[in-house]
Specification:
With about 70 residues, the chain is of the alpha+beta class. Helix content is about 20%, strand content about 25%. The structure holds zinc ion (ZN).
């Protein structure tokens, strides 16, 4: 299982299985909401689709944002 704190600088590409809506979410934002010890799977389950409102129906890919320097 991948914990959020091992991918802090990445994004999640989310795809809603119900309506096909795609979105991109910074892992950092998830950590602020849910804490960093949760794993990606459980974090995604708490998310609601901003388009159709379905909860926990998204599939995800971990996206590496190469240009995100800090
Ligand atoms: Zn949806």
């Amino acid at each position: 299982m991948i914990r959020l704190d091992s991918i802090t600088h990445n994004h999640l590409g989310l795809h809603c299985e119900m309506c096909g809506h795609n979105s991109l979410l910074a892992v950092k934002m998830l950590i602020e909401r849910l804490g960093h010890e949760i794993n990606v799977h459980n974090a995604v389950k708490t998310l609601k689709c901003s388009s159709c409102g379905a909860k926990g129906k998204a599939s995800f890919v971990i996206t590496y944002v190469v240009n995100a320097k800090r």
